[in-house]
């Protein structure tokens, strides 16, 4: 029996070795991809898909495109949202013919320069707004998987050293944040890496096409055109063709800018505070991180992640400056982004985790490709990839939207894609916690709205716990009629289950009322009234309409 298993193991190992792979290392590659896909699945919300990743903000005073008003998507209450909410709306009409776009997109001429990924989302979504939204949210996932495959060219599944370099890119802070917020940096890195793959294969015209397209994804992607430059000591004639290719790389973006200038006016705005004096913003970031680091505590570890980012980028910077190797295409690309790093402004560095880790992602790949293999370089490699330790926190599944939808899943949405939902209105702070325990603080009287998309009344149940730090009465009204009330003592918590709540078609209003003023706690400066914990809306079946007397 043992001999038979040994023979099978030898055959199994030989199969991998014939393909240039080590079995256990290959399993680690597959395992990392599986873990990433499992993390992606945690961001799915019934009826709203993966729209959480786009980060639409509830505090944004701008209106949404009318095309979005009929779609159910995640809105983060108490937040201004993030950049993807604008690019996702551009994706609804990449030709920019929609007259609503200037009203709903901040600085449309600046955003519209990055038209490639809104366009690909439009194509992948077949021009249908619900699918476009999903396609835009998931482009980073597709790009991550494609990047994982392309990187095997430099980091095959042969050694643990290669695995660390491969994982260092895929789990880098910049790439994880790009996925987490559906930004353009991840797909941009995939195109740049694909272009360098073609350079490595001596298919320079194909590389020119790919890198040219990448410029439509993000302007700084054009810096990767340095990969096409010839050797420094070559004859001047050897520069003619590379310079021609470099010019062609800029053509797609130049043509698009011409279209934008006709359509929208001046489009050369570099972005507010995106650039500054050499190293000035970099040093400001160091000062901010070192000042806030002593106060870093679980779960607010932003200063720690900022420190890891600064150390990694500094190590990468020094590697390219102190170890020049012009003959390597990846070194030329890395140096281009080193020069960009020097002049990045405060807007790119400030905040946690900050945009610098995303903007300089090509430098991360170039570093991992070029650091020599050997014991003497392991600490350098580790120092340049420290941000991968932040990946589990960045990819942590989001808290709920303040409630969980349960019961009969067939009632979660209609065939037209309209979702059963509970939305927080006025009077609430942003929901907090994890999927297993979550809560929403009210700042006084507050409202919620349950939307029933079905053409019939739905039987439902509301379950929650309510807690307050002082004595107060809390009442809950449903569509204008009192549904429940209680008197709470200091630091008292009550669990509540309200059955047979009839959800009429369309909007159903929940009104939370309290009789005492708000309070501020020593550990929380907000004005607080009461907190609703683990709110759950269960929908069961259609209810017969009440007959008129």
Helical content band: 40-55%
> How many separate helices?
20
Using the alpha-carbon principal axes, give the shape.
Answer: globular
Strand content: 15-25%
Profile the largest sheet.
6 strands, mixed
Structural class call reads alpha+beta
Using only C-alpha atoms, the radius of gyration works out to 27 Å
Query: Ranges with pLDDT <50 over ≥5 residues?
Result: none
How many domains comprise the coordinates? Answer: 2
Q: How many DSSP-defined strands?
A: 15
Overall pLDDT, averaged? 88
The separation of the N and C termini measures: 81 Å
Walk me through this protein's architecture.
This protein is α+β, with helices and mostly antiparallel strands and 549 residues long. It is built from 20 helices and 15 strands. The strands form four sheets. Strands 3, 5, 6, 8, 11 and 15 form a six-stranded mixed beta sheet that branches. A hairpin with a 2-residue loop joins strand 13 and strand 14 (524-528). Helix 7 (129-150) crosses helix 10 (185-200) and helix 11 (204-214) packs parallel to helix 12. The model has no long low-confidence stretch (mean pLDDT 88).
Question: What key phrases describe this protein's structure?
Answer:
549 residues, Jelly Rolls, 6-stranded mixed β-sheet, 15 strands
